[in-house]
């Protein structure tokens, strides 16, 4: 029985199913990860006194600061007075360098959990944190962290009782749903990976294309995640209550472009309009170069043109959403059997910008002027432009020779489940029946790529 002759799965209702519960829990987990990642970016605005400068290496307070006295782009007098009161009564006298170091601390812990082991979160956090900063308890900023931690803790308490490693181990799954899942994807759709080809991986040009693209994308992403609220305040002169909502707007745009881009990319491949390689290169090039142009233009906007700056930032982050059809899924094209390992490698490298970007932004904006913020965005634009060039040159969309794992019998070849049933007389090495893998037929790299092309 061939690949296409696999018996159809008996459908199980999605509503009230355990797979829907798992999807919801994974969604909430990802959301809270991003809540914890970006909440300090907004909270720090109302935590720190804004009238702090550095004189002869020591902190001092000043009463005449350009960013405070320039009312040409401000809102109502009442709003400006309220903002200044919050700024002047901030609890911490941290200079720009100290603030930047605090913003990178998350990434020092994050980088060590990649190899061993999104968007709505950004929208939610930026929007709610701005409101809490103004109206929350414990001086506003404290409520951001208390509520973030509380909801994350509730999620953890719910995760363990409602999830399991496999359908067979789940305590509440119905027999029909378990059969549907196991029939649809198999107990093991790919042969066990016996050896990871580390040397061949790191010699692979297409893998380096993903590493560099991931790094460059995250440099822009982390610059905006950690510094966008500060830019909105210092350069565009938005008050705190507006800041959170407007900082979330670009990520709402990215949510839309990510979904739309994925649909378009898949249609282009399915209909044979473009090969996987061309789709990945094209979408990533548009993502990088479009965001580069928009972020540089956003930096040129004055506070009198601040709403145009928000539009350009929305377009910038919207273009970045197209990377979901570029390097983000390219791991699966190159090496489906090792996709998790590859993502761990590229995401580890891509965490480094989180340690660098906030420090660079802080070092380049000591006086908090619009001209200094333009320089920050010039750097982001250059990183994106270079990343696009390298990816277009090195990227591929086909299964790599080194990515074909040996099957359980020791033969080399990609394996696919045949008919979901074990062949009579099939035994493991120790004579016991093998329960780990369905019977599968090896398939060569050439055959695999031909199947992808036909699909």
Automatic annotation (TrEMBL):
Keyword entries, A-Z: Membrane, Transmembrane, Transmembrane helix
Coiled coil: none
Taxonomic superkingdom: Eukaryota
Subcellular location field: Membrane
Transmembrane segments: 20-40, 103-124, 144-162, 207-225, 245-265, 285-301, 307-323, 335-356, 376-394
Membrane topology: Multi-pass membrane protein
Compositional bias segments (type: Basic and acidic residues): 419-431
Compositional bias per record (Polar residues), positions renumbered to this chain: 446-455
Segments of this protein annotated with the region Disordered: 410-455
Family matches, as InterPro entries: MFS (IPR011701), MFS_Na/Anion_cotransporter (IPR050382), MFS_trans_sf (IPR036259)
The protein's name in its UniProt record: Sialin
Organism: Aplysia californica (California sea hare)
């Amino acid at each position: 029985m061939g690949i296409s002759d696999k018996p159809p799965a008996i459908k199980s209702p999605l509503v009230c199913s355990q797979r829907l519960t798992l999807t919801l829990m994974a969604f909430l987990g990802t959301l809270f990860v991003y809540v914890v990642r970006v909440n300090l970016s907004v909270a720090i605005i109302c935590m720190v006194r804004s009238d702090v400068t550095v004189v002869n290496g020591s902190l001092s307070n000043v009463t005449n600061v350009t960013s405070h006295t320039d009312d040409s782009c401000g809102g109502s007098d009442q709003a400006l007075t309220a903002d200044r009161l919050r700024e002047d009564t901030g609890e911490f006298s941290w200079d720009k360098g100290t603030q930047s170091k605090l913003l990178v601390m998350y990434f020092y812990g994050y980088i060590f959990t990649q190899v061993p082991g999104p968007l709505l979160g950004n929208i939610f956090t930026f929007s709610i944190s701005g409101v809490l900063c103004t109206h929350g308890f414990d001086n506003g900023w404290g409520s951001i962290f208390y509520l973030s931690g509380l909801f994350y803790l509730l999620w953890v308490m719910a995760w363990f009782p409602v999830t399991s490693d496999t359908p067979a181990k789940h305590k509440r799954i119905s027999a029909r749903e378990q059969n549907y899942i196991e029939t649809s994807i198999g107990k093991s759709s790919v042969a066990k990976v016996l050896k990871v080809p580390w040397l061949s991986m790191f010699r692979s040009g297409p893998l380096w294309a993903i590493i560099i693209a991931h790094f460059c994308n995250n440099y822009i992403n982390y610059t905006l995640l950690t510094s966008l609220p500060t830019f909105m305040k210092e350069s565009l002169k938005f008050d705190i209550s507006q800041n959170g909502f407007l900082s979330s707007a670009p990520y709402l745009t990215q949510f839309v472009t990510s979904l739309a881009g994925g649909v378009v990319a898949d249609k282009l491949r399915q209909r044979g309009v473009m090969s996987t390689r061309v789709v990945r290169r094209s979408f990533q090039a548009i993502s990088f170069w479009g965001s580069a142009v928009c972020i540089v233009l956003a930096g040129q906007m004055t506070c009198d043109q601040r709403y145009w700056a928000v539009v350009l930032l929305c377009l910038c982050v919207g273009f970045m959403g197209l990377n979901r059809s570029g390097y983000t899924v390219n791991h699966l094209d190159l090496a489906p059997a090792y996709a998790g390992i590859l993502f761990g490698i590229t995401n580890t490298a891509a965490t480094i910008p989180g340690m660098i970007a906030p420090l660079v932004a802080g070092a380049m904006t000591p006086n908090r002027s619009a001209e200094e913020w333009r320089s920050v965005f010039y750097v982001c634009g250059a990183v994106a432009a270079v990343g696009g060039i390298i990816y277009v040159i090195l990227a591929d969309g086909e299964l790599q020779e080194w990515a074909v794992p040996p099957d359980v019998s020791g033969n080399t070849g990609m394996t696919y489940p045949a008919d979901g049933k074990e062949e009579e007389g099939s035994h493991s090495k120790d004579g016991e029946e093998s329960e780990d893998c369905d019977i599968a037929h090896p398939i060569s790299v050439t055959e695999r790529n031909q199947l992808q092309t036909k699909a």
